[in-house]
Specification:
The protein has 231 residues and is an alpha+beta fold. The chain has two domains: 3-77, OB fold (Dihydrolipoamide Acetyltransferase, E2P), CATH 2.40.50; 80-229. The chain is 36% helix and 24% strand. It has six helices and seven strands, in the order βββαββαααββαα. It has a five-stranded antiparallel beta sheet with strand order 3-2-1-4-5. Strands 6-7 form a two-stranded antiparallel ribbon. Strand 6 (167-169) and strand 7 form a beta hairpin. The longest helix has 19 residues, at 204-222.
Length: 231
């Protein structure tokens, strides 16, 4: 059997040749897949296979060439609101690149699939501050999926003196200080859905601390900092 069906979430699409496109896909069944979309600009399939769309995907596998071709895609969630402003698009791109860099969750594909899709869904109607919170929340949950989410009750050790009520954490780039606002927010949203980030606000200082903290956690495990994080 060479035709496979997947629960799929499109993460990235790029041109390939004169009329084809390459798609990077997160599937609940096999993690990250790469497949070709054949057809010109007027192709219905090409219009359906777009970033952040979720649905049922059919892929034909050529075992000789070890290549995959998308034969059909039944879109169940379109998420058009993401493309309506820069902050939503930037946050979605950062989430997608994080999933790709983390190999789709390192085996926890179904969990990764649900988190990424829910985060894209929450971004559809998010304002600028909420986009940042959804992104921070995603990275915090992603660290949990990868098994690297630290215990907030533990402190790092370094020679720097933290400000009052701040906890220092050692990173490859030096210590990061988490104030009570950032700590309490990360603890409060740990088990929440991305859609709930609209109600869990965060002051500017705490947001910067939380963002620096979660990006450094992921940077340590990935061995690099993704440029899309700096939106």
């Amino acid at each position: 059997m060479r035709l496979f069906t997947y629960s799929a979430l499109i993460l990235r699409v790029r041109s390939s040749g004169e009329s084809n496109r390459e798609a990077w896909i997160l599937t609940a069944e096999e993690g990250i897949l790469r497949a070709t979309v054949f057809g010109g600009p007027k192709s219905k399939l090409r219009a359906h296979v777009e970033p952040y769309h979720r649905g049922t995907l059919w892929i034909y596998l050529d075992p000789v060439r070890d290549s995959r071709k998308i034969t059909d895609f039944d879109v169940l969630s379109w998420k058009p609101g993401i493309r309506e402003n820069y902050e939503r698009s930037a946050a979605a791109a950062a989430i997608a690149e994080t999933v790709l860099a983390g190999y789709g969750g390192g085996g926890s594909w179904e969990e990764a699939f649900k988190l990424a899709d829910a985060s894209f869904g929450a971004l559809e109607t998010a304002d600028e501050p909420c986009c940042a919170r959804i992104f921070i929340h995603f990275l915090w949950k992603w660290a949990e999926i990868l098994g690297i989410q630290p215990n907030l009750d533990e402190t790092g050790t370094n020679a720097c003196e933290p400000q009052e009520n701040e906890i220092p954490w050692d990173t490859v780039e030096g210590p990061i200080f988490l104030g009570p606002g950032a700590r309490h927010w990360l603890a409060a949203v740990k088990d929440l859905d991305p859609a709930q980030m609209a109600r869990y606000t965060l002051d500017g200082t705490s947001a910067r601390q939380a963002r620096a903290f979660v990006t450094n956690i992921l940077e340590d495990v990935l061995g690099k900092r993704l440029r899309t994080w700096d939106f």
